[in-house]
Amino acid sequence: MLPTDQPLQALTYGPTDGTADWCLVALHGWGANAADLIGLAPYLEIANFSMVFPDAPWPHPQAPGGRMWYSFPNGYDFRRPYDFETQSDLKTSRERLKIWLSVLPQTTQIPLERTILAGFSQGGAMALDVGSQLPLAGQIILSGYLHSAAQAPVSPRPVMMVHGTFDPVVPIAKAQQASAALTALGQPVTWQEMAMGHEIPPQVMGLIAGFCEDLRQASGNP
């Protein structure tokens, strides 16, 4: 078991002169790592944002250098019911991510109320899971899914969900179920269904940038 008080390791991208007044945190998927996602940062073109990319706690058993938020059982199929809550590695990652996010403003000097939490695939599931427990400005869920029943957030915030109609990994029905559950809880969800697979193509980068800029502008920032 990894110690839950050990901070996650992360990479950062963005202004270093104190001009960043908003923060975007992005969680990678199963088998990837922070270095994979930070490679997309230059293409986002969002000013005044500090971008933070944490590594998941657990090493991936098959992908050298890859990380994971939790393991999947052998032969796992998203189309079959599964109780993720039985997994101790998920519980550890959930606790460590929540602690890390809670103290992140001490490093960024940006409050959680001006922080957007994003995630891809398994990272999207973690963003849905832990994000509801924190007073975030917004959430971006890419090719994501719910671990269990959606929880009412501690504070209302916009959520953008993007999923590919041809996703061969996470069926789009999983994301549609998550969107419906969030909507039922009163969450303002923007649903974007695109003709793509399990990926983050340039058009999705544009949606992310637009969502971030819209939230920043709506907050009254110039």
UniProtKB/TrEMBL annotation:
<dbReference type="GO" id="GO:0016787">
    <property type="term" value="F:hydrolase activity"/>
</dbReference>
<dbReference type="InterPro" id="IPR050565">
    <property type="entry name" value="LYPA1-2/EST-like"/>
</dbReference>
<keyword id="KW-0378">Hydrolase</keyword>
<comment type="similarity">
    <text>Belongs to the AB hydrolase superfamily. AB hydrolase 2 family.</text>
</comment>
<dbReference type="Pfam" id="PF02230">
    <property type="entry name" value="Abhydrolase_2"/>
</dbReference>
<dbReference type="InterPro" id="IPR029058">
    <property type="entry name" value="AB_hydrolase_fold"/>
</dbReference>
<dbReference type="InterPro" id="IPR003140">
    <property type="entry name" value="PLipase/COase/thioEstase"/>
</dbReference>
<feature type="domain" description="Phospholipase/carboxylesterase/thioesterase">
    <location>
        <begin position="23"/>
        <end position="212"/>
    </location>
</feature>
<protein>
    <submittedName>
        <fullName>Esterase</fullName>
    </submittedName>
</protein>
